[in-house]
Write a structure and sequence with these properties.
Layout: H1 4-17, E1 22-28, H2 29-32, H3 38-41, E2 44-46, E3 53-56, H4 71-79, H5 84-92, E4 96-102, E5 105-115, E6 121-130, H6 139-160, H7 166-180, E7 186-191, E8 196-199, H8 201-206, H9 211-214, H10 219-223, H11 237-245, E9 251-258, E10 264-276, E11 279-289, H12 291-305, H13 315-332, E12 336-343, H14 346-353, H15 355-370, E13 378-383, E14 386-392, H16 396-411, E15 423-429, H17 436-452, E16 458-461
Parallel strand pairs: 15-16
Antiparallel strand pairs: 1-3, 1-6, 2-3, 4-5, 5-6, 7-8, 7-11, 9-10, 10-11, 12-14, 12-15, 13-14
Length: 462
């Protein structure tokens, strides 16, 4: 199977969004190697930073391999093997970015793990981009230093509240406001009663409000949507952080905040308790709008799991799902059927009418089949004009009529200048001794049998 083609499509889409970025993809060796034929294993080499991660087609033997990264990015890639911050980021298996210094230039290396259906990291997408303004601080260090600095400053601000000289208090408040207004993240100081005692300019702007209208208001009322029966204060993450903060515990994570105009956004929050004389006296809340980042993450997930032409699952994702389903079948004994179909004489369509028409035929076939499959079925593009359909909790006696109905429906579709198009099916069911390879191989053999016996038919066996 050509793993490089889906990555090249992904790389090209990413390049269109960010031309200054360069990309590499790595595959976890223990998960990939058992699935490869001996001839395919020759296409993979260990990465420069770990024997446990593989890079594909270093020698550019495949026709659709992505181009080499630049020599500067290649040098940064070589430096990763000795980078402690990269080792920590790799072990964390979470999306993150690190800084790598090369001479007088900083590079940002972004790691995006690609997870399988069980949530385990099976591949790693890595981007390289020069950033002369980047400071070599990792994210956890940034948050801890920033929180500590703010706690010291805000602790001083709370002390000033007790001073009798109003002029001095006002001067200190203005200094604090000036410092806090230089931050790009939102900052709120919340009392034990839940009211806002301080807000910086970025915090007010993110929420679509002014500084004056937020001070002395309840934080929960300003931050969270309040549809009837939803999001009561007892479920509020900020209220919970206030309660936990009395014991010295903070809160980090994601939350949904609401702006003044009623629109909502996803926020990354860091809530740190303020402790005085061993008691919690309030909470410092730092937050940022990560809506666009979440959209980009969702788009990357979509690109890595779906076929770009037909928008159904790609081969790699289908195999991951099938592996999990086979394990369930072995454990619980439920039936499982597999069907592989191929468009008859599709090469003739491309040769006679062009690839644009051929693409429309592929999309029309997919749209027709999607109307016939169930919500529990898994439909994917296997490659070229081949498609595969996994039918959980389905015996062969039920799977064959389903394939015949799809075949009959396809015959009745008008494909414009192409006219009638037919497909052939190979259908089989899981046996107790089956592996994924034997199950797929048997369905594929039945498909070739249908082709050999005249096409436009279904061939099946247990």
């Amino acid at each position: 199977m050509e793993i490089s083609q889906p990555f090249e499509a992904l790389r090209q889409q990413l390049w269109k969004m960010s031309p200054s970025h360069e990309y590499l993809i790595f595959y976890k060796a223990p998960l990939l190697l058992p699935k490869l034929l001996p001839s395919q294993k020759k296409l993979y080499s260990p990465s420069l930073f770990s024997q446990g991660w593989l890079v594909e087609d270093v020698q550019k033997a495949l026709p659709d391999s992505p181009p080499d990264i630049s020599s500067s990015a290649q040098h940064i890639y070589e430096l990763l093997a000795d980078s402690k911050s990269f080792a920590r980021a790799l072990a964390a298996s979470a999306p993150c970015a690190i800084a790598i210094k090369d001479a007088d230039t900083f590079w940002r290396v972004t790691l995006l793990p690609i997870l399988d259906v069980e949530g385990f990291s099976s591949a790693l997408l890595m981007s390289f981009t020069p950033d002369p303004q980047l400071r070599a601080f990792d994210r956890s260090y940034y948050w801890s230093v920033l929180s500590l600095s703010l706690l010291i400053a805000l602790g001083g601000w709370l002390t000033f509240q007790t001073l009798q000289k109003k002029e001095l208090v006002y001067e200190k408040q203005q200094r604090l406001q000036l410092i806090a207004n230089t931050m790009s993240d939102g900052l709120l100081v919340i009392t034990n009663e839940g009211s806002i005692s301080f807000v910086n300019r970025a915090g007010a702007e993110i929420l679509g409000r002014t500084l004056n209208e937020m001070v002395d208001q309840m934080a929960h009322d300003f931050l969270h949507p309040h549809d009837p029966g939803q999001n009561p204060a007892i479920q509020c993450s900020i209220c919970k952080a206030l309660h936990d903060g009395k014991d010295g515990r903070g809160h980090q994570g994601e939350d949904v905040f609401i702006r003044k105009d009623g629109s909502s956004f996803v926020a990354e929050v860091n809530a740190s308790p303020m402790i005085m004389d061993g008691k919690g006296v309030g909470l410092v809340l730092i937050f940022r709008d990560i809506t666009e980042r979440k959209k980009n993450e969702d788009q990357l997930y979509q690109l890595s799991h779906t076929d770009p032409l037909t928008n159904i699952f790609n081969r790699r994702h289908f195999i991951n799902v099938l592996e999990n389903e086979v394990e369930r079948v072995k454990r619980y004994g439920a039936p499982l059927s597999l069907a592989i179909c191929d468009i008859d004489h599709f090469k003739l369509v491309n040769d006679s009418f062009g690839h644009a028409v051929g693409d429309r035929v592929l999309q029309g076939i997919v749209a027709t089949i999607q109307k016939r499959v169930r919500a529990t079925d898994v439909f994917a593009r296997w490659g070229g004009e081949e498609f595969v359909l996994m039918l959980p909790h389905t015996t062969l006696a039920d799977a064959v009529p389903m394939a015949q109905k799809i075949l009959s429906t396809i015959r009745r579709v008008d494909f414009g200048e192409v006219g009638m198009v037919t497909i052939s099916f190979g259908v089989t069911t899981f046996r107790g001794e089956d592996t994924i390879d034997t199950l797929i191989s048997r369905a594929d053999s039945l498909l070739y049998k249908a082709k050999a016996e005249g096409r436009n038919c279904v061939r099946s066996s247990e």
